[in-house]
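User: Please fill in residues for this 245-position structure.
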C-alpha cells in the first residue's frame, strides 16, 4: 500500500517535470515577449548604445578593412585573441559602468584585465561545450552569427551552490547581442544541429577579487611572473602574474 502511494507520488512528480520541460520553450518565448513589451529600464543612463569611441582605432580600421574587402577576416579573430589592448576601451568605457551596477559583489566595479577569444562550433567539428565555470569574474558572450540551429546556452546555479537538484535555464542567444554573466555562474552550450556558430567571449577579471582567492582552485594564488594580462592576478602595481595551479 505504502509502495503504491510512493509510486503514485513519483509518477506525479515525473508528469509535472515532463509538462514543465514540454512547455519550457513556449514559456521562454512568452517571458521574452513580456519583457520586450513591458520592461522599463530602472537606470536608463547606465545603458547606452555602443559607440565608436569605445573601440580602439586599430580595431575600427581592421573591421573597416574586412567590410570593404568582404572577407570574414581571420585577422580580426587573431587580433582579438592576441591583442588584449584592442578591447580595453570597450571594457572600461562601455561594459564596466554596467557590470559595476549588476555585479559589484564579484568585482564588476573593478575589472582591470580580460582575456578575449572566439569560440566556433560547426558540424563535423566542435558541436557543444560542457557545463563549466569561467576563469573570470564577469563574462560577456557576444553572438557573432552565422546561421545555425540548436546551440542554446544553459545556466545552472552559481558554482558554490551547484548540486544534483540544481535546475537549468536555457538561453537562446540573439545575433549581435551580448550576454553578461558572472564567471562563477555555471553554464554550457548545447550541441548545434546545423550551420556554424561563432561567439566572442571576453573573460573579464578583477585583481582585487582574485588576488585573495583563485576562482578556479579556491586557493590563495601562487604567482608566476608573465607579460601582458596573464590570468589577471597582480603582485605589485607594475608586474602582472599568472596563477600556477
Ligand atoms: O559557446 C558559448 O557561447 C559559450 C562559451 C563559453 O562559455 C566559454 O568559452 O567560456
Ligand atoms: Fe564559459
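Assistant: Residues filled in for all 245 positions:
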Amino acid at each position: 500500500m505504502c509502495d503504491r502511494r510512493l509510486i503514485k507520488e513519483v509518477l506525479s512528480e515525473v508528469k509535472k517535470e515532463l509538462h514543465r520541460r514540454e512547455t519550457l520553450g513556449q514559456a521562454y518565448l512568452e517571458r521574452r515577449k513580456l519583457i520586450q513589451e513591458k520592461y522599463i529600464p530602472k537606470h536608463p543612463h547606465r545603458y547606452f548604445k555602443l559607440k565608436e569611441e569605445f573601440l580602439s582605432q586599430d580595431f575600427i580600421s581592421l573591421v573597416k578593412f574586412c567590410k570593404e574587402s568582404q572577407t570574414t577576416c581571420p585577422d580580426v579573430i587573431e587580433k582579438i585573441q592576441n591583442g588584449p589592448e584592442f578591447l580595453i576601451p570597450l571594457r572600461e568605457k562601455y561594459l564596466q559602468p554596467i557590470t559595476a551596477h549588476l555585479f559589484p559583489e564579484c568585482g564588476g566595479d573593478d575589472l582591470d584585465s580580460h582575456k578575449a577569444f572566439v569560440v566556433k562550433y560547426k558540424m563535423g567539428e566542435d558541436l557543444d561545450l560542457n557545463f563549466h565555470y569561467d576563469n573570470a569574474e564577469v563574462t560577456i558572450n557576444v553572438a557573432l552569427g552565422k546561421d545555425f540551429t540548436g546551440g542554446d546556452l544553459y545556466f545552472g546555479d552559481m558554482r558554490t551552490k551547484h548540486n544534483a537538484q540544481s535546475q537549468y535555464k536555457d538561453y537562446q542567444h540573439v545575433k549581435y547581442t551580448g550576454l553578461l554573466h558572472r564567471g562563477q555562474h555555471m553554464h554550457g552550450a548545447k550541441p548545434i544541429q546545423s550551420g556554424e556558430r561563432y561567439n566572442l567571449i571576453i573573460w573579464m577579471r578583477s585583481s582585487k577579487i582574485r588576488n585573495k582567492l583563485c576562482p578556479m582552485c579556491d586557493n590563495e594564488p601562487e604567482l608566476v611572473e608573465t607579460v601582458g594580462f596573464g590570468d589577471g592576478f597582480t603582485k605589485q602595481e607594475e608586474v602582472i602574474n599568472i596563477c600556477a595551479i
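For context: The mean pLDDT is 85.
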